[in-house]
Task: structure prediction
Amino acid sequence: MEKLALVTGSAGLVGSECVKFFSGKGFSVIGVDNNMRKTFFGDAASVEWNKDLLLKTAPDYVHYDFDIRDKAAIEGLFIKYKFDLIIHAAAQPSHDWAAKEPSTDFDINAGGTQTMLENFRLHAPEAVFIFLSTNKVYGDNPNRLPLVELEKRFELPEGHKFYGGIDESFSIDNCLHSLFGASKAAADLLVQEYGRYFGLKTAAFRCGCITGPYHSGAELHGFLSYLVKCCISGKKYTIFGYKGKQVRDNIHSRDLVEAFYRFYLKPRPGEVYNMGGGRDASVSVLEAIGLCEAVTGRKMSYEYADRNRIGDHIWWISGLSKFKSHYPGWKISYDARGLIEDIFVQQEKLTGNK
Result:
């Protein structure tokens, strides 16, 4: 029997990767995306091009321009279709934007997630529910780690328990989150509760920097994608605080969606997984600029702003041991340079450069 998946944020980076992946696995896919990314970040961040691409290339894909805050529209979808899998990737994703409109941020991230969960519980309780959470639920607690400043990055001492990556035992409490981090934490806890309280098959994947060639990167969201875009166009890139030595691990959207698939095949109730590229795909902003220049053969123009984003991490590498212990066949495919190379090839195609 044919399986049916619902993907919110379906024209975004992760959502579109889910549409392509699960269509390739024989699923029919229903997508929900009203291009709020354009509202958040301007015309350059519009995902209309990606929606059009999916409609042309993904078999049996059906798109709805619904807002996840529209309770009647979302309930209508759950009544019309019997879903086997729900991937909730729609969100307001920016620290800075959340501070401009806190109520909108919370309504989308927390309220929209609750609407999705309740319809899942009422209309598709046998399905699997996967939520795209964030490492920002840990707030600035990682900044309290005993970090050492090196030439181009901050680093933990070898031998520290989190040197290989921060695991799910790390506290999300008693720290500064940013309003975005708080709204996502509320949604994350709801996803856990619907799994643990109601016994439903839910998982929250707490991701660091997700990237890939189909990301509509903008200054306020989309680190590597936006960096490569600036390198290609010659636009000046702004480094925000921490001397440019802040470290992120980056995961390719395809590797993330492969992890979703592993969970779908063998789901567990109320799980939480830290998810990222791990140490091999970790890179500071300064190191990423150097890699961009090496991959593209172009010199980047950048400036330094001596103010970090509120609640931002100085150092983050995801500990992957829990997910790998539950799903030992899964692995990371890209290191930091490989990620930038993949993004660069697609960006060149989109801009028409050779």
